[in-house]
Amino acid sequence: MQSPADRQDRHEYPAHWEADVVLRDGGTARIRPITVDDADRLVSFYEQVSDESKYYRFFAPYPRLSAKDVHRFTHHDFVDRVGLAATIGGEFIATVRYDRIGADGLPASAPADEAEVAFLVQDAHQGRGVASALLEHIAAVARERGIRRFAAEVLPANSKMIKVFTDAGYTQKRSFEDGVVRLEFDLEPTDRSLAVQRAREQRAEAHSVRRLLAPGSVAVVGVGRAPGGVGRSVLGNIRDAGHPGRLYAVNKAFPEDLKEVDGVPAYRSVRDIEGPVDLAVVAVPAEHVPAVVSECGEHEVQGLVVLSAGYAESGPEGRERQRALVQLARAYGMRIIGPNAFGVINTAPDVLLNASLAPEMPRPGRIGLFTQSGAIGIALLSRLHRRGGGVTGVTGVSTFVSAGNRADVSGNDVLQYWYDDPETDVALMYLESLGNPRKFTRLARRTAAAKPLVVVQGVGSAPQGHAVRATRLPHATVSALLRQAGVIRVDTITELVDAGLLLARQPLPAGPRVAILGNSESLGVLTYDRCLAEGLRPSPPLDLTTGATAEDFHRALSRALADETCDAVVVTAIPAIGEGSPGDAELAEALRSAAAAVPGKPVLVVHVELGGLAEALSAAASTSPQALAKAPGAEGGAHPPPLSASLERGDPHRPAERLPTAAPEAVPEASKSCSRLIPAYPAAERAVRALAEAVKYAQWRREAADPGKVPEYDDIDEKGAAELIGGLLERGRGLTLGQAETCELLDRYGIHVRRALPAPTPEAAAEAARTLGYPVALKATAPHLRHRADLGGVRLDLADEEQLRRAYTELTELFGQPEELRPVVQGMAPRGVDTVVRAVIDPAAGAVLSFGLAGAASQLLGDMAHRLIPVTDREATSLVRSIRTAPLLFGWRGSTPVDTPALEELLLRVSRLVDDHPEVVAVTLEPVVVAQHGVSVLGATLRLAPPPARDDLGPRTLPAY
Question: How high is the pLDDT of residue 735?
Answer without folding.
Answer: 85
